[in-house]
Amino acid sequence: MEQDETMLDAGVSRRVMVLRLATGLVQGALLYWLYQADRGGWWPAGTPYVMTPLLMACALLPAMLISAMGHMAPKNVAQWMLAAVCVVLVMALHAVSRQSDLARGAGELAKGAFTSIPGPMMVFGAVFMYIAHALVMAGAADKRRVASYHTYFELAWKLAVQLMFSAFFVGALWLVLLMGSGLFAMVKLDFLKQMMEESWFVVPVICFAWSCAMHITDVRPAIVRGIRSLLLVLLSWILPVAALIVSGFLCALPFTGLDVLWATRHATSLLLAADAVLIVLINAAFQNGQAKAALVVRVSARVAALLILPLTAIAVYALGLRVHDYGWTSDRVIAAACLVVASCYALGYAWAAHRYETWLCPIAKVNVATAFVVLAVLLALFTPVSDPARLSVSNQVARLEKGRIKAAQFDFHYLRFDGQRYGQEALTRLSQQATGPDAALIRDLAAKALKETNRWHDGLPAAPLSITDNVKVWPSSTRLPASFLAQKWYNMPDAVQAQCLVTSGRTCDALVIDVDGDGKPEVLLFNTGPYTTPSLYAEQADGKWKAVGHLDADESLCQPLIDKLKAGQYTLVAPRMKALEVAGQVLQFQSEFGPDNCKLIKAAK
């Protein structure tokens, strides 16, 4: 039988190998073309409604095509690929249309498409395609619309192992190429290293290697099944531990109360994670429903199947409380979608666990039905049907208009940076609102939000921020230069070096000293926070202050250094080591400062 299987695999390999490898080469060529267009600004880089669908299709569909070759009739493959292209097209076009004017104004959709495509859409788009492809392949294998659970199980896990080991194969190949480039570099031959830095080599090689790995794992199903069986058996023995932990958690809740859960502010996500762990481990033990399992694993699986329901119920309650108090946000809409899926599993598994005459066999039907639910939920989330941004913006604006939240407390910043296009449209409408409670204040705050260009600050200095309150100057009789106080530090890239200049409540200390002897004072900021070094700021010819140097000493680990600086027990001396001048640029050697130096400072009188 094993020999027959090997011969069959070889036959499949001869028929489809060339097409699969050609698919990998074509994918590499298309992705290289898109990458070069993205970098050079060529068409279709300037047309996001073309670039984004092409990029998503080239990234997601070839693996499905390679997997389908040899297992589906050519006509069925063409029909399935056409359907998949339509789904990708809808998702990609919606992803572009929902973008806010911030991205369009910055050119992020015209150039830089490789980085501007939302990560969640790519990840969950891949999840959607994986589930859908497994369902279609199983139906084709059984020659019916709804296949047997055994076929679903075999093909879904085969595809998962293929994807994992294809990624491993590509990584291993790249390590070998890195080794080769290092070997050639030792004999002054850097051609391989240079090739590995070129996109014309990197992109096609990765795609071709991926297609090779997909083909090799496809024609060796016995190896794939062996890996899958080992993985599932190992995971199944974690199930008793997980069931015990979750049981203990639920038993502790009557004594601790639910308030401690709400205080974490992320109870729903933790409970959903626990649901996911139990579901994966239960299926690792159940497998295709025919695998034998030890008694402790079988009991743990039945207990775990019952535990998912209370976990999900608590998660629903937790989310409901947050929505009642603060309304819907994109994250809460996504959490609600996850809870819909979790509820299907929870109810179905609880029903299966109460069927004592079977080894949880009903969960096979639950898994198949929930797979279709997952597809529907994902399609709704990444299309206009249930776009999280659209739903959350609509809800938040409704709460504002109904007076459930006052205008002064409303988060206009959320609409600007998390509401996507829907948030911009809502802000535009609110900025023109003429009637209703607090209409003038709403117009003013909405107009200000529309002018914001950076999500991390609103383009205006925070009202509570006062540099004179944050920065303590030593000695106390000294004052910071007026231009230093007037500087708008939140717009300066160097501001990240000293949070006391941009964040209310963050304090630091300062010395005003003339370091270079030009008669103009510089400002040395120290004690700025953990693992920071004292930074020297100087006024430039244009009147702007910037960081021009730092002391190579982590003063946060040396309190005696801070004390000496505050007490004024220091002198300015010329460096003992001369500097290097290279092409007009002066490079100054920094002396090492360590624990021994700190001890010497502490010992000094």
Could you explain the architecture of this structure?
With 605 residues, the protein is mainly α. The protein folds into four domains: 2-230, no CATH class; 237-386, no CATH class; 388-451, no CATH class; 467-603, no CATH class. It has helices at residues 2-40, 48-68, 74-97, 101-106, 113-116, 119-142, 149-186, 191-195, 199-218, 221-236, 239-256, 259-264, 267-286, 295-326, 330-353, 363-381, 388-401, 412-418, 420-430, 439-451, 467-470, 482-486, 559-566, 595-603, and strands at residues 471-474, 508-513, 522-526, 535-539, 545-550, 580-582, 585-587. Strands 1-2-3-4-5 form a five-stranded mixed sheet. It has a two-stranded antiparallel sheet with strand order 6-7. α1 packs antiparallel against α9, α13 runs parallel beside α15 and α19 (420-430) packs across α20 (439-451). The termini are far apart. Mean pLDDT is 87; it is low at 1-8, 104-111 and 459-464.
